[in-house]
Specification:
It contains 7 helices and 10 strands. By secondary structure, it is an alpha+beta fold. The strands form 3 sheets. The protein has a 5-stranded antiparallel beta sheet with strand order 3-5-4-10-9, with helices on both faces. Helix 4 packs across helix 5.
């Protein structure tokens, strides 16, 4: 996100990943929403198999990361959970966040065996005592294994998802998407986003993508086209958060709850 100064770049590999060995194995893990990164991160990488659920609430787009284009969901215009739709802010988490605080190893993003790490962050809002990563016998606990399975599933879908972005980019079918607004004198921007060129849906330019990648590409492209209009709802929510409440209200609570 950008508010005129700082930019937060979405990553699938955590803020401070550490190996799952020695002291790290003795730590406790908590529900994903106990971590600020899960609650607040507005732009999150996703895979094609979760696009259907997410597109009902959020825009799906692509974000450049070097020469690669990640499929991402834009949950808000700000890295602040209050800027997300309240109905699904905590209930509808992208799968990479469901696995948190476990993440992919940065140099092994495909998530094959041995490519998992622990994000070395503090759970600032725990709701229970959490669960250990390993049992007394030194084996991974049930809580850890459940999140490992999520990462394994993501790893299986990443190749196809990334290939969709590669083909779209190499075929020059992506164009910049400017999500930049002035809200109460503050510049709010989600930088470096791309969408499929609008004219390609009325021509045959998408045929090579669909021919190579079939149903997964067709699903993502269809949902992407519909979902970009969800940006209007995100803008309205950001305005309620940042603009001063109307005169006559005691504070901003009644206004932001609208």
């Amino acid at each position: 996100m950008q508010d005129g100064s700082a930019i937060t770049v979405p990553r699938m590999w955590g803020l401070c990943p550490v190996p799952l060995e020695r002291d790290a194995l003795r730590r406790r893990i908590y529900a994903p929403v106990a971590y600020a990164a899960v609650r607040d991160q507005a732009v999150v990488p996703v895979v094609h198999t979760e696009a259907y659920q997410l597109a009902a609430w959020f825009p799906l787009a692509w974000r450049a990361r070097g020469r690669e284009y990640d499929l991402v969901v834009v949950r808000a215009l700000l890295d602040d959970q209050r800027a997300q739709p309240r109905a699904v802010a905590r209930a509808l988490l992208p799968r990479i966040l469901q696995a948190y605080p476990f993440v992919f190893e940065p140099t092994n993003p495909q998530g094959i065996e041995g490519g998992r790490m622990l994000d070395d962050v503090f759970a600032d809002q725990p709701t229970d005592v959490g669960a250990s990563i390993t049992t007394v016998g030194g084996k991974f606990s049930r809580a850890a294994l459940l999140r490992f399975r999520i990462l394994d599933g993501l790893a299986g879908d990443l190749t196809t998802t990334r290939r969709i972005g590669e083909v779209l980019a190499s075929s020059d079918l992506l164009e910049p998407w400017q999500l930049k607004f002035d809200i109460a004198g503050r510049t709010v921007e989600v930088p470096n986003l791309f969408i499929v060129r609008q004219d390609t849906f009325e021509t045959g330019k998408l045929s090579p993508v669909l021919e190579e990648l079939g149903a997964p590409a067709a699903l993502v492209l269809g949902l992407h086209r519909i979902s970009v209009f969800r940006a209007g709802a995100l803008l309205a929510t950001a305005r309620m958060l940042l603009e001063p409440p109307p005169s006559g209200t005691a504070d901003g609570q009644a206004y932001t709850a609208a």
